[in-house]
Amino acid sequence: MWVYLLQGIGFGFAAASQPGPFQTYLISQALTRGWPRTLPAALAPLISDWPIILLSVLVLSQVPDWLQRVLYFAGGIFILYLAYSAFQSWRNFNPQAAEFNSEGSQRSIGKAAMVNILSPGPYIFWTLVTGPILLKGWRETPLHAFGFLAGFYGTFIFALAAIIFIFGTAAKLGPKLNRALLGMSFIVLFGFGLYQLWLGIAG
């Protein structure tokens, strides 16, 4: 079991470290709303990943190419919407606004889960990388599979929480830095959205 637990820890750290729409969304939220209000969003993968794992391991590797393109296109549209929201926050930036943002933690988790479930990265990751390890462990004994999942999500969520804390704390270093980082998150989200639209159209 320890082998699967250690593999889960390693892959969890790698998944959190890879830049993507989900991580960028968490950063933009930490800059806008502060880390205490954004921190619950780190739990979003616990909500969104279970259907992703099932689809990836059981179905996604066998679906036609056109369905994968639809997924890319839908994710691109949603990410562009998030980029627009980040741009609005950058344009109408108010250093005191984050302190009084009333968006609840449930809504924050819901948005983060939607970003994750519409991003193709988790599907690809669970289909090509972690899915085979999970299936192998399950065939040996379910305990190995659970150990792998525990190591993966324990590390993944901890790393996401660290990212939120770091950028949320950096936002307090000054309004100019906060606004600049928020602008960068808009640019990155916009780039991810266009890239996914291109993947959906070009196939």
Could you describe the 3D structure shown?
The protein contains ten helices and no strands. The chain is mainly alpha-helical. The protein has one domain (2-202). The termini are far apart.
- Structural class call reads mainly alpha
Total number of strands:
0
Work out the radius of gyration: 18 Å
Count of DSSP-assigned helices = 10
Number of domains: 1
Q: Unreliable segments (pLDDT under 50, ≥5 consecutive)?
A: 98-103
Give the amount of beta strand, in percent: under 5%
N- and C-termini, Cα separation: 39 Å
Tell me the overall shape: flat
- What integer is the average pLDDT? 78
N to C succession of SSEs: HHHHHHHHHH
Major sheet: size, sense and barrel closure? Answer: none
Fraction in helix: over 70%
Q: In a few lines, what is going on in this structure?
A:
The protein is mainly alpha-helical and 203 residues long.
Can you give keywords for this protein?
203 residues; mainly alpha; 10 helices; 82% helix; flat
